[in-house]
Amino acid sequence: MFSVNVRDHMMIAHSFHGEAFGPAQRLHGATYVIDATFKRETLDANSTVVDIGLAATELRAIVETLSYHNLDDEPDFVGINTTTEVLAKSIADRLAERIHAGAFGPAGLGLAGIMVTLHESHIAWAGYERAL
What we know:
Order of helices and strands: EEHHEE
Largest sheet: 4 strands, antiparallel
Number of strands: 4
Shape: elongated
Structural class: alpha+beta
Oligomer: single chain
Radius of gyration: 16 Å
Distance between the termini: 14 Å
Helix content: 10-25%
């Protein structure tokens, strides 16, 4: 399996519900480094996995809809604890929607999967992987 990774970052605010989250139940900020890894079994006609420029642009477009927002106020996340895992899945699913809509060009339709990893720090991260 071939892969290409692009990276971006975002800063958000959110709070969690439930005693398991202790002080994180209060509104707090988080900064994430986001890795989006695109996978395919065979290279496209240009001998690439995906156009890196398009991948970076599409990831940036998704990140811009979340960055500098209080996720507690976002309709997509009402009643949901926006854990790192939940955010990784949300970004992966949004990338998949853009791929299926043709935003990555015809070659994007040959992608087999996406892995999105959100790094909370240099020692903690979470991710979500999905097929396309």
